[in-house]
Amino acid sequence: MIKNFGIIGCGMIAKFHAKAIKDAKGELVACYDQVPQAAERIVREFGGKAYGSLDSFLADPNIEIVTIGTPSGAHLDPAVAAAQAGKHVIVEKPLEITLERCDRIISACEKAGITLSAIFPSRFHDSSIKIKKAIDANRFGKLTIGDAIVKWYRTQEYYDSGAWRGTWELDGGGALMNQAIHSIDLLTWLMGQAVEIRAQTALLAHERIAVEDAAVATVRFANGAIGVIEATTAAYPGYLKRIEIHGTNGSAVLEEEDIVKWDFATSAPEDAAIRETMANKLSGGGGAADPAAIGYHGHARQFIDVLDAINAGRKPLIDGYEGRKSVEIILGIYKAAETGAAVQLPLKNDPELLVRKSGMKR
Is there a contact between 11 and 41 (Cβ–Cβ < 8 Å)? Predict the structure, then answer.
């Protein structure tokens, strides 16, 4: 029975991973970070062995699953190395910051015959699952509008706190790639494949960063529905993220984990209970103003799914291909904003925007 985890990247998100591992009945046996003191801090609090060398960490036979919490543009190398070492891999969002890098991770894991999952815990919240089941049961009728709204606030000190923050090379983008990606993933999980994007992005409120702190995009989905994606880290004091799903026979509105609207032309026996039990689910501010205020229970549920998938010999609910989808949409938004033209999905080639702006190699 596979259950032993190792963590690569021991910044803020590592604590969420460690807590989720415990709740998933896994065991944290090792941590690695380029800064040895960071790994030692996690080990002191949660147990395991601290490593200052990635090779030594991956050579530890006790490690069966690796979670990766390095900066977004530094997921590729440890993920591929872990796969080649025969470890199952869970990658914090985004899977990577270009499609080519995402595909290299997916390919390495497939070649090694190991399980890959990209972390999108919002899909595992009870309220999200209720909406998804209602869509699948055709309670909404024909889907017409789907919106994702992330109006958060980050101080200048937040961006100044890490040299990787707000860079194309390691953050991969701004309010979209770092903050709103969870909502974009959830929106498209509910609404279906996005096929066309128009967009505008801007840097309005922060200094010393190269990426956007405000973005608006319109989306057309494969089913004919349309929608809006709004993302910012410049909306003081920061508000709860919001998903709105509308159709010819029903509407639902999600704020963080709360279903605040649940209205259908034809009622169902479970509606009253959903309105009562799916409200007041919120834990903390959901990251609206404080990135450390997010809950980790969605991570725990996803880790449970990954463990079950590995031990049962099935695919996890969110594999590498699912994790790649939101990255493609965000890159499409960046391309649409830069060119001023509609962008069709799937992208034929990786947009060159990140390469041009950062000087990074393809």
Answer: no
pLDDT tens digit sequence for 82-117: 999 999 999 999 999 999 999 999 999 999 999 999
Residue with tokens 């903050």, as numbered in its chain: 179
Mean residue pLDDT of the chain comes to 94
Q: Which fold is adopted by the domain 123-288+325-344?
A: Dihydrodipicolinate Reductase; domain 2 (3.30.360)
User: How many residues does this entry show for the chain?
Assistant: 362
Beta-sheet pairing, 194-202 with 343-344: antiparallel
Q: Which CATH architecture has domain 4-121+297-319?
A: 3-Layer(aba) Sandwich (3.40)
CA distances from 177 to 76, 183, 212, 232 (A): 16, 11, 10, 11
The H or E element spanning position 118 is: strand 116-118
User: Are 229 and 219 a contacting pair, CB within 8 Å?
Assistant: yes
**Taking the chain, what is the end-to-end CA distance rounded to the nearest angstrom?**
39
Cα dihedral 133, 138, 141, 142 sign:
positive
d(CA 307, CA 132): 23
Domain ranges in the chain are: 4-121+297-319, 123-288+325-344
> How far apart, in whole angstroms, are the C-alpha atoms of residue 321 and residue 308?
19
d(CA 136, CA 5): 34
Q: Kindly state the DSSP code that residue 127 receives in the 8-state scheme.
A: H
SS3 call for 236: coil
Domain 4-121+297-319 identical in fold to domain 123-288+325-344: no
pLDDT tens column, 318-333? 999 999 999 999 999 9
Of 96, 136, 49, the C-alpha closest to 331 is 96
- Nearest-10 Cα torsion for 183, 185, 186, 188: 120
